[in-house]
Amino acid sequence: MHELPRTLGALRASRFSEDRIATRTVKDEIRQNLICKLQKKEPLFPGIVGFEETVVPHIVNALLSRHNFILLGLRGQAKTRIIRMLATLLDEKLPYVAGCEIRDNPYQPLCRQCQNLIEEKGDDTPIAWLTRSHRYVEKLATPDVTIADMIGDIDPIKAARRGRDISDELTVHYGLLPRANRGIFAINELPDLAGKIQVGLFNIMQEGDVQIKGYPVRLPLDVMLVFTANPEDYTARGKIITPLKDRIGSEIRTHYPITVEHGMAITGQEAWTGRPSPAAARVPPYISEVVEHLAFLAREDKRVDKRSGVSQRLPISVLENVISNAERRALHAGEDLAVPRVMDIYAALPSVTGKLELEYEGELKGGDAVARELIRAAVGKVYSSYFEGVNVSTIVQWFEMGGSLRLDESANSATMVKELGKIQGLMEKTGALGLGSNEPDGVRVSAAEFLLEGLYAHRRISRNEERGFVAEERRRADPEDPPKKQRRQFQ
Question: Which domain holds residue 306?
Answer without folding.
Answer: 260-486
